[in-house]
Write a structure and sequence with these properties.
Elements: E1 2-6, E2 13-17, H1 29-33, E3 36-42, E4 47-53, E5 57-74, H2 77-82, H3 87-92, E6 97-112, H4 122-129
Amino acid sequence: MDTFVEGGDSHTVVTAEVMKFASRLALSRTVVDSVKLYPEFDKGLRHLVYTITIGVLGKETKTEQYDDEVKTYPATIWEELKSVWPKWLRRRFPVRYTTEIRHRTVTHYHICPHLDYGNTDAAHIRWLQGVVDNRH
């Protein structure tokens, strides 16, 4: 299917086709029933934006802590302007700085989207526990 789009001036015509995208997932009936769609109007995009939520079984497998990220910058825009003043004036009115420290933590999960909540399939339970099963 072709779509014709005219541009800003009368000489521009673009021929485009409708592109379809798909993703294949093995989802249990319980998981499919948990799907929720939340429409929200985005003022910046001037369109409806949809948030899709889905409930899957999962288990936290490990947590990693990373070094803190430290950033230092002038406290306000006025302090930023003072940083370009002559040296003698900055000695009289020193620039005040703000320090921001960000602690980073990454949490890893094993999820099993095709496992029914009530199912007790041993291979899936081992996967959630982080046990590798080489029999498959």
